Amino acid sequence: MIEIDNVSKLFGAGDSAFRALDRVSVNIRENEFFTLLGPSGCGKTTLLRMIAGFEGPTSGQILLDGQDLSDKPPYRRPVNTVFQSYALFPHMSVAENVGFGLNMLGRSKSEVAATVTEMLKLVRMTDLADRKTSEISGGQQQRVALARALAPRPKVLLLDEPLSALDFKLRKEMQLELKRLQSDTGITFVFVTHDQEEALTMSDRIAVMSAGRIRQIGGPREIYDQPADRFVADFIGDTNFLPAEMIARTGDSAQLRLAQGVEVTARAGQIDKTSGTVTLAIRPEHARLVAPDAGQLTGVLDEIVYFGTDTHYHILLDGFGTRFVLRLQNTPDEMRMMQQGDRVGVALAASAGQVLKD
Ligand code: ATP
């Protein structure tokens, strides 16, 4: 539905020009919850602003339903934006805020009233329709901003870090609410966040960006289980990176030798190598903490960090020069007597890891 085709964006001119986006290509499908995810400054907002029409590409094209958008100003695109700051009118009531855009579009009084009622119901704000927006909570303001953006029934809703001002609990609630709104309305959502957990929870598909480029596009599971490269593996979730030697390769399966002489099998992922030095990525949940003689790897417990639901164990592996982190759930019947400085073993799940491109 939205085709972003080889788009680059330069700010400034000549030698001092800054390349905020570098040959970005993405296809966003109709009725999809699509997320642009990446660290601060990677170009997410710039890309979103280009879909909205606030910014034009330096090269490349953006198409909507097969039509080039370049000469369409923002107000003529079937696209609406929810900003981080909400940008509500504080002197107007909730209902007036929601109806504002529709009035500007010259819709009839009865149509405006009917849509406002419907939208307030959708975001569960009917009871506060007459309250001024300066007199409602941050979470409620967020709902009003959403209702206002959805009211003209755009084909695409762009959301730029809309939950970042909310506290943790409310944020979790609104994540589910946004997902519900997206599937109830069938509108395509393009959502910007730097929060990987938020992206994994809400999205149908995610584009992971860094330094103006797309690193990987895929569903949450695909991105988490099969990161395309080291950046993605590091940015999404926790990952242990271990240096390894590839000693054999058959299709997607690689035989690796690690320090301590241990041999493991791992997914070869997207790398072309059949031998030589590689990096093995292993998620913490794919390893178990065991007695020193009961796993493949040994080391010393360096740090124990309590997280409520689970505890993270940091292990200095013998001969690796790297730390290995694994997580264990804190169950009431489990008594762990381990302490910093104890010798421990690490048992790796079979074929759990993935070989990465650097
Ligand atoms: P954040 O999560 O911090 O909002 P982002 O990924 O959305 O980051 P952008 O706002 O798209 O990043 O900015 C991408 C890069 O382009 C940044 O390095 C930023 O400084 C630069 N940039 C953005 N707008 C302009 C501008 N108008 N002029 C010059 N540089 C700009």
Question: What's the SSE blueprint?
Answer:
Layout: E1 2-11, E2 18-28, E3 33-37, H1 44-52, E4 59-64, E5 67-68, E6 79-82, H2 94-104, H3 109-122, H4 138-150, E7 156-160, H5 168-185, E8 188-193, H6 196-202, E9 205-210, E10 213-218, H7 220-225, H8 230-235, E11 240-250, E12 253-258, E13 263-267, E14 276-282, E15 287-290, E16 297-306, E17 310-317, E18 323-329, E19 343-348, E20 354-356
Helix pairs in contact: 2-3, 2-4, 3-4
Bound molecules: adenosine-5'-triphosphate
Using the alpha-carbon principal axes, give the shape.
Answer: globular
What kind of sheet is the major sheet?
6 strands, mixed
Number of helices: 8
CATH superfamily of the largest domain: P-loop containing nucleotide triphosphate hydrolases
Q: Could you state the order of secondary-structure elements as H and E?
A: EEEHEEEHHHEHEHEEHHEEEEEEEEEE
CATH class designation of the largest domain: Alpha Beta
